[in-house]
Amino acid sequence: MSAILLAFSDVPANAEQLFYRALVGLVNGRCYPVLIPIDVALPALAYSRVSTAPIASMGCPAGMGAISLFQVDVVGQSYMSVLDMANGVRSAMIETGKATLSSMIDIQTDNPMIFRRVLTFNVMEF
Hints:
The protein has a single domain, classed as Phage tail protein-like (STM4215-like, 2-Layer Sandwich). It has three helices and five strands. It has a five-stranded mixed β-sheet. By secondary structure, the protein is an alpha+beta fold. A hairpin with a 7-residue loop joins strand 4 (99-107) and strand 5. The longest helix has 17 residues, at 79-95. Helix content is 25%, strand content 36%.
């Protein structure tokens, strides 16, 4: 039993920690929960849990897991840099083995010199 605990000692406790670890290297540490601070250099990322619903299955006891929707906002000063960063985010999230891409859309910002792409991921949590 202790060998199993030691083997998994650096596994993140939750999806947020796992995704932070997967994403933080893409933007030199500029990866934030929920919102990107106003004075941060771009590009930067924000990630958040949008929703969580328990898995409803006749073959599975209640409380066996959940399906969550996570959102990652990619913000930058050029459209091409945002596209490149979004592709990196998609790859990093899928490589965690926990996420599948649900949608990817461009969002207009108030500033015509700032570009934003939003990616959403379905995540199975057990």
